[in-house]
Amino acid sequence: MRINVLTLFPEMFSAVTGSILGKAAEKGLLEFNFINIRDFSNDKHKKADDYPFGGGPGMVMLADPIFGALNSIDAKGKKCIYMSPRGKVLNQTMIQELSQEGELTILCGHYEGVDQRVLDYWEMEEVSIGDYVLTGGELAAMVLIDSVARLIPGVLAGEDSAMEESIYSGLLEYPQYTKPRSYEGMDVPEVLVSGNHKLIRLWKFEQSLELTKKNRPDLFDTFVKNHGDFTKDEQKVLEKVLK
Ligand code: 6GU
Could you tell me whether strands 182-183 and 186-187 are parallel, antiparallel, or unpaired per DSSP bridges? Predict the structure, then answer.
């Protein structure tokens, strides 16, 4: 997948190119293209923003440098995303759909926003990462890039490790333990070292249910409504958690 990022702060993206995603780029699974919007400013001071027509707080990013940047990568007709707190909130379904694309172009906004004509002409899809406000779209873009890239085959070391995680089943992940079996007086739950795989599976299911009920009652209700295909043992565990 080719990922184009238009930003006023390209240096911020060393956070993604330095890690697992950097390795994936070396392997040719990902190709990053960071574009500094300021490089396309036709102003002698490299100006990239100006005051909003009609007044109001803050500055608005100029259309012209962004048009220049998007034209330079032939973005017309391709998937373009504008990171913005007023966009659709990113979720795993959107992430899965985006991971099927061959090329993504992401515009990071700053100040109060960008000239609306950028969004209209380039048919930008507006995406938010949650109900809070960041100073700019860069951190949000990195969240999107990381979550999409890890679904591309070969990016994660373990082949299907992205598929195993419990957000896919609609429940949160159960607690994990590793060596030593006893640490600071706290022991690993006995069942996990019992060798009884059926009991281990049921314990994990119960822990996932309890955690989801406590932290994400919305997900818990959906899970209970949509799942009818439980074994007798799973049904017992579910009834225990529901009490
Ligand atoms: Cl995409 N941008 C900004 N500036 N703030 C946000 C956001 C995006 N998503 C949540 N908050």
Answer: antiparallel
- pLDDT tens for residues 144-178? 999 999 999 999 976 556 655 545 589 999 999 99
Give 23-30's long-range contacts (Cβ < 8 A, gap of 24+). 24/149, 24/152, 24/154, 24/155, 27/154, 29/1, 29/152, 29/153, 29/154, 29/155, 30/1, 30/2, 30/3, 30/149, 30/152, 30/155
Does residue 180 have a cis peptide bond before it, meaning omega lies within 30 degrees of 0?
yes
Ligand 1 center to 134 CA (angstroms)? 5
Instruction: Give the pLDDT mean for 97-101.
Output: 98
Q: Ligand 1: distance of its center to the CA of 142 in Å?
A: 11
Q: How many CB atoms lie within 10 A of CB 27?
A: 10
**Torsion angle, alpha carbons of 167, 171, 172, 177, to 10:** -100
Q: For ligand 1, pick from 88, 133, 135 the residue to mutate: most ligand atoms within 8 Å of CB.
A: 133
Is 0.70 topped by the overall pTM? yes
The DSSP code for 172 is P
